[in-house]
Amino acid sequence: MRIIDAHHHFWDIEANYLPWLADKPVNFRYGDYSAIKRNYLAGDYRKDASEFEVVGSVFIETEWNPQDPLGEVAWVNAVREREGLPSVMVAQAWLDRQDAQEVLEALGKTTFVRGIRHKPKSATSPVEVVMGAPGSMGDEAFRRGFAMLEPNGLSFDLQTPWWHLGEAADLAQAFLDTQIIINHTGLPSDRSPEGLDGWRAAMKRAAECPNIAVKISGLGQKGRPWTVQDNGQIILETIDIFGTDRCMFASNFPVDSLVAGFSTIFNGFGRAVADRPKSDQDKLFWANAARIYRIDVAKGD
């Protein structure tokens, strides 16, 4: 199976400072994450993905030391030159910080950074959402930084619970020339009928914006193994909501190794869309990622 993995990480926790892996454990959506508090490098990834023809990949920032966002860019560039992966990178940047302009301009001058990820402030439930809260997508400081993305040729990877996707739609409509990519399928962690109804409505609202795409990834549930039975319907609904041209499959490795092996996840994607035309499958597994993240598959970058 030919793939471009649209969302994965590498880290060397012996050489670099990643607070969430090095310091006191954070409240993590999969629960205990001690199993991934170890180095995870290109050789580990290739071993995990060995069943597949990986023709490209997208490295997503790893919550590296926030005082040194460009340090991760330099480290990833060295990995790319040595290992041939990743193809491109989504870097860390804090849109509401004083150094946003400096950091975004530096990222825009690289040859392999395609966008940034800044996790906006989020509420813990739909009823606690406060529009325009400091650090949220409606915050004026956040939007000032967001306005600098398009001039620097950068897209925006958005990781936020589904109950903030209305704010994402407002943001997308205000900045029509900036590509937004929703991470981890909008985080449908609440699989109750009410939770899925809320997730579905929020995804439909986001899909109204042509400049929003979605990565189908991060579908694990706390205390449960990853299965097609649990996740297949969400995969298919996401494709139906956004359309085949705006969805990408991704591993979220090594994080999702907490719930399944790499092969289980990608073969599960394959089973979920097995009845789709090959042209649609190609888009989902690699072609959309190549287009959205501007990866030249023939050259590998």
Topology:
Blueprint: E1 2-8, H1 19-22, H2 42-48, E2 53-60, H3 69-83, E3 88-92, H4 100-108, E4 113-117, H5 140-146, E5 155-158, H6 165-174, E6 180-182, H7 193-207, E7 212-216, H8 228-242, E8 247-249, H9 262-272, H10 278-292
Parallel strand pairs: 1-2, 2-3, 3-4, 4-5, 5-6, 6-7, 7-8
What features would you describe in this structure?
The chain has one domain (2-292): TIM Barrel (Alpha-Beta Barrel), CATH 3.20.20.140. The protein contains 10 helices and 8 strands. The chain has helices spanning 19-22, 42-48, 69-83, 100-108, 140-146, 165-174, 193-207, 228-242, 262-272, 278-292; strands at 2-8, 53-60, 88-92, 113-117, 155-158, 180-182, 212-216, 247-249. The chain has an 8-stranded parallel beta sheet with strand order 1-2-3-4-5-6-7-8. Strand 4, helix 5 and strand 5 form a beta-alpha-beta unit. Helix 6 (165-174) runs parallel beside helix 7.
